[in-house]
Write a structure and sequence with these properties.
The complex is a heterodimer of chains A (326) and B (312). Chain A is α/β, with parallel strands linked by helices and 326 residues long. Chain A contains 10 helices and 14 strands. Chain A has helices at 14-17, 39-55, 69-82, 98-106, 132-147, 163-179, 195-208, 222-232, 247-256, 267-283, and strands at residues 28-32, 58-61, 86-89, 110-114, 125-128, 151-157, 183-190, 214-217, 240-244, 259-264, 292-294, 300-304, 307-309, 314-316. In chain A, strand 8, helix 8 (222-232) and strand 9 form a beta-alpha-beta unit. In chain A, helix 7 crosses helix 8 (222-232). The model of chain A is unreliable at 1-23 (pLDDT under 50). Chain B has 12 helices and no strands. Chain B is mainly alpha-helical and 312 residues long. The chains are: A alpha/beta (326), B mainly alpha (312). Chain A binds chain B through residues 35, 37-39, 65-67, 160, 187-190, 192-196, 199-201, 203-208, 210, 221, 224-225, 228-229, 232-233, 248-249, 252, and chain B through 26, 28-29, 31, 33-34, 37-38, 41, 131-132, 135-138, 140-141, 153, 223, 227-229, 231, 233-234, 236-237, 274-275, 278-279, 284-285.
Chain lengths: 326, 312
């Protein structure tokens, strides 16, 4: 199971020792999810395959069966030994995987991260699926659209202390103040990332604030939890539900008209862009300091501070949710 | 019954104060729209807390009930999704819970390991097993006939609350009236003395773990019945909720004493705290602080009374 001393490629270029930096059919790019069976990463892989066939790249796909930073390290080590040309990783733990990624870079392997970043010096670029501003703006703009620019809303968050949630809350507040002064946030409640607790919190909000017009759930289990509470309260359609979540968990509520909009990125495009970016690094088309990157079928995308931006979040609605299977 | 009432007095007082504050400032808390889902959602917690109280009276504790709850919920969800009728699925969830409880009991009583240590282990194993099996995926789209035990929402909500009340009553009567109940108290007060008078202390401990597991399985079924999806993370933190409720309700951490009436009020008090803050407009940061304060106050109150007991 472990790749300790035995297979550690010492200083000798072990890659050429086993003789195969297979240059035959073009470069080899290795893609790693946080965990293999997860539908989210299966969708990302599908996008990566599209990019690989467009670019004539050989794609390897491997990762832990369950999220496991130690296993991610082992797989990177194996890929170094095997002599792949570029690696794209969704990091389970920022610090944990960084040392093996640095080692890969020292051997001339191009490294990009996607979905979740490593430490900046451990990779060439991070393919960032969404900035806090992108998420906050999309949520508040959608709330304003549904409420006609005026009304009260409540936010269900995953936790009051998680870094990303706090950034999203701040981005929501900024957008609210800057663009939609008619909207008023009347409550912010944590749900500990639990659907059942999001249900209880939403129920209390609906009864304590009968004038609330919209529930905005910003952690994925809270979106179906809030929707179920609105549905059981008999307020479907009267109180709107939007949130940041997975389309699959909300499909039924979208079709029933309880939930209006689920916001996320197109995960398939994330995998596609990760491979495009890794390939561009290999070819020298993408270098440190770049501000633009040719994202293939996605067109030109922005690059800033070593981050390649996938673009605006995507809005999943009743009309399009069935085109996605994660 | 009178000692049960006396132990429940402090928690009843705090709950009463909270109820008066809510009735004056936020009467909406007592509307049917709030109360029915609140009670239905609290029912599963009460069922687990009854089992926990019995176990704590034997001087043991089980911190793995949250993962037992999740395992039973996911199992039941998968069974129902495969078309298994609830009349079979619910007993299967209870049996699965009893089995998980029996494993804890066998390790704790059989190998004489501290229950806290054993169940810290099984807590982690249960959660990791679920993460491996589900990777966070919900069990989705249970047949609609399963929701509310087929009774419809408004009747179903009361049915869940009544089911939990029936369990609490039965456990309370058993703890006071049955031979097994007296054994539980004896084993917890002074295991050595109990053994000399013929109480099978280890079997009592094993039985209490198993009963708690079975009740946790039942609670999982009552919870699954409220929804159409099962979140595999469900029940996270349940252990602290029910242990705290038991302590607030007058169950001694040293074993030997405790009654279900106080525990039931403790469950209600802790469960009411979070929605009460929403109604009173108090920021959520205060919830944990208040919970902690209530537990500390009740434990301190309990030890203050302890010297009044005749020392053996």
């Amino acid at each position: 199971m472990s790749c300790a001393a035995g297979c550690k490629p010492a200083d000798a270029p072990a890659a050429s020792a086993d003789g195969t930096r297979d240059k035959a059919g073009g470069p080899t790019i290795a893609l790693m999810p946080k965990s293999k069976g997860n539908g989210y990463f299966v969708a990302a892989k599908r996008g990566a395959e599209d990019a690989a066939s467009e670019l004539g790249v050989k794609l390897l796909f491997d990762g832990p069966t369950e999220p496991d930073p130690a296993r991610q390290n082992e797989i990177v080590e194996t890929w170094i030994t095997r002599g792949v040309d570029a690696i794209a990783v969704a990091c389970e733990n920022r610090e944990a995987v960084s040392s093996s990624l640095r080692k890969a870079r020292a051997r001339g392997i191009k490294v990009v991260t996607y979905d979740a970043d490593a430490l900046p010096d451990a990779r060439d670029f991070f393919v960032n699926q969404a900035t806090p501003e992108g998420i906050g703006n999309a949520l508040v703009d959608e709330a304003a659209r549904l409420l006609g620019g005026r009304g009260r809303y409540a936010v269900i968050t995953g936790s009051l202390t998680a870094g990303n949630m706090i950034e999203w809350q701040k981005a929501i507040e900024r957008r609210n103040a800057d663009r939609h002064p008619g909207l008023q946030r009347i409550a912010l409640r944590p749900c500990d990332d639990l659907k059942d607790r999001a249900f209880a919190e939403t129920t209390a909000i609906l009864n304590a604030h009968p004038d609330v017009g919209l529930i905005m759930a910003i952690c994925s289990p809270a979106v179906p939890g809030a929707a179920e509470a609105v549905k059981q309260a008999g307020k479907a359609g009267k109180v709107r539900v939007i949130g940041l979540g997975l389309p699959g968990e909300n499909r039924r509520y979208l079709h029933e008209g309880v939930t209006d909009t689920v916001i996320l990125w197109k995960v398939k495009d994330l995998g596609y862009l990760a491979v495009q970016a890794a390939h561009a690094c290999l070819e020298g088309r993408l270098r440190a300091g770049a501000t633009r990157h040719d994202g293939g079928r996605l067109g030109e995308v922005r690059v800033a501070d070593g981050q390649i931006l996938l673009g605006e979040p995507f809005l999943f609605t009743r009309a399009n949710v069935d085109q996605f299977d994660f | 019954m009178s000692t049960d009432l006396r132990r429940a007095r402090p928690v009843a007082l705090v709950l009463g104060v909270l109820a008066v504050i809510l009735a004056v400032t936020a009467p909406g808390f007592f509307s049917r729209a709030q109360l029915a889902p609140f009670l239905a959602g609290t029912a599963p917690v009460l069922v687990v807390a009854c089992g926990m109280a019995v176990l704590m009276v034997t001087r043991e504790v089980d911190v793995s009930v949250g993962s037992q709850f999740a395992l039973c919920s996911v199992l039941l969800g998968l069974l129902l999704g495969e078309g298994c009728p609830p009349a079979l699925g619910i007993p299967a969830a209870v049996a699965a819970g009893a089995l998980l409880g029996a494993v804890n009991g066998a390790l704790a009583a059989g190998l004489r390991l501290p229950g806290l240590v054993v169940t810290l282990g099984t807590l982690a194993i249960g959660r990791e097993a679920l993460r491996w099996a589900r990777e966070g995926r919900f069990v989705q789209d249970l047949p609609p006939s399963v929701q509310w035990l087929g009774l419809g929402q408004s009747l179903g909500q009361w049915a869940l609350a009544l089911a939990a009340l029936a369990v609490a009553t039965a456990v309370s009567l058993g703890l006071q009236g049955l031979m097994a109940g007296r054994w539980v108290h004896a084993a917890g007060s002074d295991p050595a003395a109990a053994a000399t008078v013929g109480v099978p202390v280890r079997r009592v401990t094993f039985g209490a773990f198993t009963l708690l597991g079975a009740l946790t399985g039942l609670a999982a079924a009552l919870n699954v019945a409220r929804f159409t999806d099962v979140d595999p993370k469900t029940g996270a933190g349940l252990e602290m909720q029910v242990i705290a409720a038991a302590l607030i309700g007058g169950v001694s951490i040293e074993g030997g004493r405790g009654g279900i009436l106080g525990v039931s009020l403790g469950v209600l008090l802790l469960a009411a705290l979070s929605p009460a803050l929403v109604f009173l407009g108090i920021p959520p940061e205060w919830e944990r602080v208040l919970q902690g304060a209530i537990v500390l106050a009740s434990v301190a109150g309990g030890t203050r009374r302890a010297p009044g007991r005749p020392t053996p």
